[in-house]
Specification:
alpha+beta; 19 strands; five-stranded antiparallel beta sheet; ten-stranded antiparallel beta sheet; D-amino Acid Aminotransferase, Chain A, domain 1
Length: 521
């Protein structure tokens, strides 16, 4: 029909020239490419038989010095191997790029999990590319320095087939890559990334009218911190601790804690803070010195917040998605498990979150998401809370927005792909395609010195022999991720799916028992 748009005519438009990175011309080209993504989403995403290509760039384009403190951080790129489950759609292709080659045993492990598709059929539609680069630079930066690799990515997409980039997070580097490939990103324009910083999050919370810890944002200098820390204690005399957070911190490793002295007057307190702040700050990240933390605070900016106290505290999070059509969806809720000396490090998560506040958290998340929609945010993001049990119920404090995928993204996607189910935001439960409820416990940080030396093949043998492997018929069991980190770091990620929260956690404890038993020598 004249004037109508057929999905078969929506072809990816190549970019004839590459403007300088970060230039106004590049920003303009990126917006033009992104503008066409809504048509691709509308016509191709709902059709499971439509030919399309997803280029996965699992780059953690974050502060590399902070990330370097995370054991096996290079293998965090494996977390998005959950997107290999997209190959269950028989005409979908996946191009997966990594810093180093992924062990074929690990790839086979994921392809074996595909429901309704043979491994050979899926493998024909999978292209694995590598930079062969273990340096601490982000994966996206590595790709941008390799013109021939970019050409291989481009040539891996069949001519005339629609495609898009799936990234862990989107920065200026990902924007440059998108322009060079002529592909849209299912993610946020980096020009809007401020709203995912700690300072930007507080402003969004204020706009949405939701509670957050007392504090101050958009700080940078040492004097800014001194005044903010002193002002907090002045306003809240019973406050015991303050939290300093880098604007772009990751998994709690960009935080530091300050414990207030007792019994000082306001004048004496300000003098104490001014002279002792540097000595008393305790960074959360292992081996990150106070000098380095303050230097990062100076150029990155950050916030100071009150440390929320409470006899009974939880750390729930809400995951939401804003699609290219502007539709907001509550994707999931989790209770995060935090550890470390100050309780700031993300260890794992229970899905869904506690039933007593599941709906409350979801409603607050949707409220915040509407503000983000008004600002033009696109893609998946999470909102973290601190929740305190009070006599009248739970008090929820929003603490940060992460405009990226995170530690709760890949477990939920894996559950969704494996069961063809979905989270019902009205009931607060996840139902499989045959209407059975499923729960899970997931962690990226199952680590033990004794596990070092276990190869991917060893792990899979152990899982099969002890009945830990995910059972596709029963739709429950254990799925491993970050398998490549096991041998060198003794670290592995686990997703434990059960018919109840108790069964899911039981799978986790059984996994630990089995691994300990198999390495007890």
């Amino acid at each position: 029909m004249p004037g109508s748009t057929s999905k078969h005519t929506l072809l990816r438009q190549p970019v004839a020239s590459f403007p300088p990175p970060g230039s106004e011309e590049e920003r303009h080209q990126f917006k033009k490419i992104q503008h066409g993504f809504s048509r691709q989403f509308q016509f191709f995403f709902p059709d499971t038989l439509a030919p399309k290509t997803v280029v996965v760039i699992p780059s953690l384009t974050l502060d590399q010095q902070v990330l370097a403190k995370v054991d096996g951080v290079l293998h965090y790129e494996e977390r998005l191997l959950c997107l290999l489950m997209l190959l269950r759609m028989p005409r979908t292709r996946v191009v997966y790029v990594s810093s180093m080659p992924i062990d074929p045993v690990i790839v086979d492990y994921y392809l074996h999990l595909l429901p309704g598709i043979t491994g050979s059929h899926a493998r024909e539609r999978l292209t694995l590319l590598s930079c062969y680069d273990m340096s601490p630079k982000s994966l996206t930066e590595k790709i941008l320095s390799r013109d021939r690799l970019i050409e291989r990515i481009r040539h891996s997409i069949p001519a005339g087939q629609v495609a898009h980039l799936a990234c862990f997070n989107v920065t200026d580097h990902e924007r440059t890559l998108a322009v060079r490939l002529g592909l849209p990103i299912y993610g946020c324009d980096p020009a809007l990334n401020y709203w995912g910083t700690k300072s930007g999050s507080r402003k969004v919370f204020l706009h949405a009218g939701v509670a957050m810890p007392p504090g101050a944002e958009d700080l940078s200098s040492y004097e800014d911190i001194v005044h903010a820390v002193a002002a907090l204690k002045d306003m809240y005399p019973n406050l015991g601790k303050a939290i300093l957070k880098l604007n772009d911190g990751f998994s709690g490793d960009g935080n530091a804690v300050l414990k207030y002295p007792e019994g000082l007057s306001q004048h004496a307190l300000f003098d104490w803070i001014h002279h002792n702040l540097k000595k008393e700050i305790v960074p959360v990240a292992n081996d990150l010195s106070v000098d380095v933390f303050l230097e990062k605070f100076k150029y990155m900016g950050g916030i100071v917040e009150a440390f929320v106290e409470g006899d009974i505290k939880k750390s729930p999070s809400v995951q939401c998605r804003i699609n290219p059509l502007g539709e907001v969806k509550l994707v999931s809720t989790h209770d995060q498990l935090l550890g470390g000396e100050t309780g700031q490090i993300f260890l794992g998560a229970l899905f869904p979150c506690d039933e007593s506040y599941r709906k409350e958290i979801g409603e607050i998340g949707k409220k915040i998401s509407q503000v983000l929609k008004e600002k033009g945010i696109l893609g998946r993001f999470s909102i973290d809370f601190i929740s305190v049990k009070e006599e009248t119920g739970w008090k929820h404090y929003a603490i940060e927005i992460n405009l990226r995928k995170g530690g709760t993204t890949h477990p939920y996607l894996m559950l969704q792909f494996l069961t063809n189910g979905d989270y019902d935001e009205d009931t607060g439960v996840f139902e499989t395609a045959n209407k059975q409820q499923r729960y899970y416990f997931a962690s990226d940080n199952l680590q033990n010195e004794k596990y070092k030396g276990l190869t991917p093949q060893d792990l899979i043998d152990i899982a099969v022999m002890h009945g830990l492997h995910f059972d596709g018929a029963a739709q429950k069991g254990v799925v491993f991720h970050m398998i490549g980190a096991l041998s060198q770091y003794g670290k592995i990620g686990v997703l434990c799916i059960g018919e109840s929260p108790v069964e899911a956690y039981t799978f986790y404890t059984k996994t630990i028992e089995v691994l300990n038993q198999e390495t007890a020598f």
